[in-house]
Known about the structure:
Elements: H1 2-101, H2 105-111, E1 114-120, E2 128-135, E3 138-146, H3 150-168, H4 176-190, E4 205-213, E5 218-224, E6 228-232, E7 235-239, E8 258-261, E9 267-271, E10 279-280, E11 285-286, H5 289-299, H6 304-319, E12 328-334
Antiparallel strand pairs: 1-12, 2-3, 3-4, 4-5, 5-8, 6-7, 6-9, 9-12, 10-11
Helix pairs in contact: 1-3, 3-4
Amino acid sequence: METKYETEKKEKENIILKKNKEKQEITIQKQKIAGFSILIFLILAIIIAIWFFKLKRKQEKANKSLQEKNIKIKKQRNEIQKNHRKITDSINYASRIQNALLPNENDFKENLKKHFIFYKPKNIVSGDFYYFKKIDEYIIIAAADCTGHGVPGAFVSMLGIAFLNEIIRKKEIKTAAEVLEELRIYVKTSLKQKGENYDETKDGMDIAMCVINEKTNILQFAGAYNSLYLVRDNELKIIKATRNPIGIFLKEKPFVNNIIQLNKNDKLYMFSDGYIDQFGGKKGRKFQTRNFNKLILKISNENFSEQKQILEKTIERWKNGIEQNDDILIIGIGI
């Protein structure tokens, strides 16, 4: 009996020991899992920390590079602005020179009681110019459109004004056509236009020139592409120009000298192509010669200051927000 009791006791102890051992093994297993989890977490934390560190370094490097580029861009922008100011100042100075070469408004007022000048450069300086000179009983007026606009056109325009001043003083030059013939020679010579090379400059100008004898009211007109409009008795007459420019041309023709007896209340109009060629309207098209002719005839009975205002307002409405695409020049004269 005692032996059986001890045997049962030992078995119970063994079972308890086994259960304790299993519990220990489970505890150890849990500790191992916990240890591995902590290790994996630490490894991941280290990897993430390294990644963040490298990302931060990369970001700092990118920021530094961006700062350097911004400094460089700012420096370049300041340099560009500085150069732009210099160029603009130079062009403004060139504009003052060009305006000084243009006729004084008082010359027109003293010699032409009825007139207007609508002069609107596309840029600061213009490729269009107008000319006025009084010699004895002759009044000489011209409206010219030089190749290009802006600075290139302005250079040619200043040449044209200087050349005309020299040509007009020559006593052997007696007609408007002779003035244009001489002007063509001057331009071709100064710009070295010989027609020998394809690459040589083709610069020049289109011009309308009027010479009015105050005593007889006889008008001489000669034109290089630019015609003259005469409004008489509510009718528009076009005195056509010679289809040749002032400058080198493949088939040069002599300029025609038109002689017209002017009557009281006649109106003369000279102009460049800037107004006619202005884009605008609902469809963004050119103003066109047909519309310009109708407009001139319509406004011709208004006083000349009113005519100028109508021309200005009409082209502004026509542009409809479109940028001016060329220099504009229109001269109106009443007899």
